[in-house]
Design goal:
46% helix, globular
C-alpha cells in the first residue's frame, strides 16, 4: 500500500463512545475495548471522538475524558491513538489539541467547521489553528463532505499547506470522489504523508489509488475480515480481494435497506462484540433490536462468526 514505512497504515478503528443506559460516559469499558480490538479484530490503532464516537454530541470535558482514557489504556498496546479535536469553534479545537498532547496522544485530526462553511483558505487557517496548539503532534485533516457539507476540492486545499502547517502529515478522506482522492495521494506521496480512506465499503478502490490505510467504524467488528482483504491486495490476489470487498458490500447494502445509521451501527457493535456500548447520544435515537439482530445474522452468513 505505502512505500514509506513511517506512514499510518492498515486499518484504524473509528471508535464508538461507550455510554451507560443513562447516557453518561462508561469509561470502564475502554480497557476491554482495547483488548477486544487487538485480540479479536487485529486492529492496532484508533481514531477517537470522531463521527462514529459522536464527538460533536459530546461536551469538551467528555471528549477530554475519553481521549485521556484511550491514551492510558492504549499505552504500550496500541500503535496509534489519534484524537479528533475538530469543533465549530477554533478555540475549542485548540483546547482539545493541547489536551491531547498533554495526555500522550500520538496524533490529532480535525474536521472543518461546518455551520459557517469555510473556503479553501479558511480550511487551511482553521487547520493551522488546531495544529499550532499542539505543534509536536502530527495533524491530519478530516474530509467528510456528506455530513459537513464542506464540499471543497481537497487537492486544492493541500497545495502549499506544508509551508503553513509544519506538523501537517496527511488526511482522512471520507468522500466518494475518487479523482480528488487520487490527486491527494499523488500530492501527498512525495511529502511522505498518509492518506487514509473513510468509506469502508469502497476501500479496495481506494487501495488501488494508493491510500495507506483506512479509518472506519466497521473495522470495530469486521476488522478481522477486512484485514484478509488488505493481505490479499498486498499479495496481488485481486480476485480474492474483490470477493471479500463484495461480501462486505452485500452486508451493508442489506443494512442500508433497514435504515442503517450511526445509532444502529453502535447497536451492531454491542451485539457482535459483547461489549455494551449503550445508547446513542441525542439527537440520534435507538432502533428496534430485531433490525440489529438481522444485520448480525447477515454478518455471520457472509463473514463468519466473531473470532474467539
Amino acid at each position: 500500500m505505502c512505500p514509506n514505512s513511517s506512514k499510518l497504515t492498515g486499518l484504524i478503528a473509528a471508535t464508538f463512545t461507550p455510554l451507560t443506559p443513562q447516557g453518561e460516559l462508561n469509561l470502564a469499558l475502554i480497557g476491554p475495548y482495547v483488548d477486544y480490538l487487538l485480540e479479536k479484530q487485529r486492529v492496532r490503532s484508533v481514531f477517537v471522538n470522531g463521527t462514529t464516537g459522536e464527538g460533536c454530541s459530546l461536551t469538551l470535558e467528555e471528549r477530554k475524558q475519553l481521549a485521556e482514557e484511550w491514551c492510558r489504556q492504549g499505552k504500550g498496546k496500541l500503535d496509534q491513538v489519534i484524537v479528533h479535536v475538530g469543533c465549530l469553534s477554533v478555540k475549542d479545537s485548540q483546547e482539545l489539541a493541547r489536551h491531547a498532547a498533554s495526555v500522550g496522544a500520538d496524533a490529532i485530526a480535525a474536521i472543518s467547521p461546518f455551520f459557517l462553511k469555510p473556503s479553501n483558505a479558511g480550511v487551511t487557517d482553521v487547520s493551522k489553528g488546531s495544529g499550532s496548539a499542539a505543534p509536536q503532534l502530527p495533524l491530519y485533516y478530516y474530509h467528510l463532505p456528506a455530513l459537513t457539507g464542506v464540499k471543497l476540492n481537497v487537492r486544492e486545499v493541500l497545495q502549499g499547506i506544508e509551508t503553513q502547517i509544519p506538523s501537517f502529515k496527511g488526511l482522512k478522506f471520507s468522500g466518494v470522489d475518487l479523482r480528488d482522492l487520487g490527486q491527494c495521494v499523488s500530492y501527498c506521496r512525495p511529502h511522505g504523508w498518509s492518506v487514509l480512506y473513510g468509506v469502508d465499503e469502497q476501500l479496495l478502490g481506494a487501495l488501488a489509488l494508493g491510500v495507506c490505510g483506512a479509518v472506519g467504524s466497521t473495522y470495530n467488528y469486521v476488522g478481522h475480515f477486512m484485514n484478509k482483504m488488505l493481505n490479499a491486495f498486498e499479495k496481488g490476489d485481486l480476485a480474492l480481494a474483490q470477493d471479500l470487498q463484495f461480501k462486505m458490500q452485500d452486508v451493508f447494502t442489506f443494512a442500508n435497506s433497514l435504515g442503517f445509521d450511526l445509532a444502529m451501527n453502535k447497536q451492531v457493535m454491542s451485539l457482535w462484540s459483547g461489549l455494551p456500548m449503550g445508547p446513542p447520544r441525542l439527537p440520534l435515537l435507538p432502533w428496534p433490536s430485531d433490525r440489529t439482530q438481522d444485520i448480525v445474522k447477515k454478518l455471520q452468513q457472509e463473514m463468519g462468526p466473531c473470532p474467539k
